[in-house]
UniProtKB/TrEMBL annotation:
Record key words, sorted: Membrane, Transmembrane, Transmembrane helix
The protein's name: Uncharacterized protein
TM annotation in the entry: 20-38, 104-127, 161-181
InterPro entries: Spore_wall_assembly
């Protein structure tokens, strides 16, 4: 068997695609088992990480205010498209939806490229992960589902990129459970910057 090389240099460590796929499947199942037993504590830890991050900003409740549309002409979402979009995001953000997507789309890609399967999984769950991470912010602003859809559409690439990285971190075997807590810290910091009060603070500093 030939030794794999990179730019002509032999690689010190080589894992065959079959071995990598096996490890990925086993780690996924292990993560599901860990999540099942730790789901209550994880939910508390994630909420506490988000709340403590906002508390560290030392801002009063009035700082957050209520939702106010910033664009004079916000992007219009057709009713059907907006409804389907929200339903897909809600499905992908649920635990059952994630399993369905993984079984139907991601697992077949493992045979081709395990790394590609991770990237595709993160891309599919990008918006749903970002929405889940910012759900406390939407609740705090008393935003309706339609307002959430428009708000995310206005910042679609910000949400896609943030959600992609967060989903990719959470898919790292074993460590992903811990990173799902630290993702709440990043989401809270982004919520602080997204709030009109946070924008005003940045402009004042600038």
């Amino acid at each position: 068997m030939s030794t794999p090389t990179l730019l002509g240099y032999p690689l010190p460590l080589h894992i065959s695609p079959v071995t990598w796929a096996t490890l990925l499947v086993l780690s996924t199942q292990s993560d599901l088992i860990l999540w099942f037993f730790l789901r209550k504590n994880l939910r508390i830890a994630r909420a506490r990480a988000y709340d403590l991050t906002l508390l560290s900003r030392n801002k009063p409740a009035e700082f957050w205010g209520t939702y106010v549309e910033e664009w004079q002409e916000p992007p219009a979402l057709p009713e059907r498209e907006g409804g389907l979009r929200l339903r897909f995001i809600d499905l992908a953000s649920s635990r059952v939806g994630a399993i369905v997507l993984r079984q139907a789309i991601v697992f077949p890609l493992i045979a081709l490229s395990p790394l590609l399967s991770l990237l595709v999984s993160a891309a599919l769950r990008a918006l749903s992960t970002a929405k889940t991470l910012h759900t406390p912010y939407f609740t705090q602003k008393h935003m309706s589902p339609a307002q959430v859809a428009v708000f995310m559409q206005e910042r679609t690439w910000d949400y896609r990129s943030f959600g992609f990285v967060a989903a990719l971190f959470e898919r790292i075997p074993f460590v992903g459970i811990l990173l799902s807590v630290s993702n709440r810290v990043g989401a809270a910091m982004w919520a602080f910057g997204t709030s009109p009060g946070g924008c005003a603070s940045r402009r004042a500093v600038g």
